[in-house]
Amino acid sequence: MYDSTMDHIICCLLVLGATAMMARACPKYCACQNLSESLGTLCPSKGLLFVPPDIDRSTVELRLGGNFILRITQQDFANMTDLVDLTLSRNTIGYIQPFSFGDLETLRSLHLDNNRLTELGPDDLRGLINLQHLIVNNNQMGRIHDKAFEDLAPALEDLDLSYNNLVSLPWDSVRQMVNLHQLSLDHNLLGFIPEGTFTDLERLARLDLTSNRLQKLPPDPVFARAQDSMVPTTPFAPQLSLSLGGNPLHCNCEMLWLRRLERDDELETCASPPALKGRYFWNVKEEEFICQPPLITQHTHRMLVLEGQTASLRCEATGDPLPTIHWISPDDRLLGNTSRTALYSNGTLSITITTSKDYGTFTCIAANVAGESTASVEVSIVQLPHISNGTGQPSQPKSRLSDITGATRVNKGTPKTQPEKTVTVSEVTSVSAWVRWTVNKAAPKVKMYQLQYNCSDDEVLIYR
């Protein structure tokens, strides 16, 4: 009798002890569930200002939605190596400390929607190598770092970035999301998508680009699966649901490929050119999708440049699409941005005139998909006399120039004298030099000083 009573008491104490341990492991205001040998910690809409520090580290599912959490830190989810599903929706999160998710290699789903995130940094999502669902819609994001998706790109299946302020995306990372099924980019400020972005996304079944600032869409084989007549041949190449409405589509020849797809009951309209503005995209005839070849409207015809000065050569052109401006040097080289040349978006070429190769005809080429147009600019150089090394004697310019650089004036009847050295250089270092020159009363009135130097490492003589 005594033994039976003691066994019963001990059994009750063990049960109470286990219950007490469970109660201590579950944070205040949260509910903890042990289902199928996995622990779920549920803390939705409890008025939490931060992630509870006493969450069981073996939690598999953690729901913290509908609270007032302000930031995510590295300590919040440290050592939660079994976590599979994390919900942080509908909080006020505005900052994620880098590497906060570093221990969550088993995480499959992360919900960060309806928060106040303004950007994603390079290491904010670091460590999520098996993440399949990333939901970050309805935030205030204006920027995503190029490396933000580096770890999660290969495994990701569902990415929702809708209702943000994104002007661009890390498109190189998007190209690597080869397992992506759904991509929601609607209601952003995207104005450009690089060609080839979707080429390898063979499993993509839904692409939402609604209400952005896209004027055109790059042609890609993946869009052939967006046709109504498309019959899926394999589960790895499903029919694509493509949404484009609400974009200011520019209906020229660059969008003809899209018009040729067999699609019905879509809401896309043309925003330009003026002749097609407001018309239903799929009702515009193919022959109306036209482009205009370039026409150069303004350009520099000729220019006389003092050696060492910078010349700005103008070239403006119209066309549809807007032409790209290229410049060819007198020795038939395609010019780009270098230490002495700069190409601007308005077509202007800025070049520092330093060598004899800069003398002659520069060619401006305006090109687009409809053709090209050219114009010539004649550049003449006024060369300066240079002091010969070690002699102090000025070498004569090849073109005529005033004698403002002369050292003395020689009058009739006076004997010729050895010209004095007009410029001396001393105390030369790698970053500075002491330059002295004199102007005597016999010299003409000085209109301008110009200092020129060249680097000893230059392969050719370039004066700066």
Automatic annotation (TrEMBL):
It is found in: Cell membrane; Membrane; Synapse. Belongs to the LRFN family. Residues 388-420 are annotated as: Disordered. InterPro entries: Cys-rich_flank_reg_C, Ig-like_dom, Ig-like_dom_sf, Ig-like_fold, Ig_sub, Ig_sub2, Leu-rich_rpt, Leu-rich_rpt_typical-subtyp. It holds the Pfam family Ig_3. Its main location: membrane. The lineage of its organism: Eukaryota, Metazoa, Chordata, Craniata, Vertebrata. Gene3D superfamilies: Immunoglobulins, Ribonuclease Inhibitor. Keywords: Cell membrane, Disulfide bond, Glycoprotein, Immunoglobulin domain, Leucine-rich repeat, Membrane, Repeat, Signal, Synapse, Transmembrane, Transmembrane helix. PANTHER family: LEUCINE-RICH REPEAT AND FIBRONECTIN TYPE-III DOMAIN-CONTAINING PROTEIN 2, SYNAPTIC ADHESION-LIKE MOLECULE SALM. Residues 388-399 have a biased composition (Polar residues). It comes from Betta splendens. This is Leucine-rich repeat and fibronectin type-III domain-containing protein 2 isoform X2.
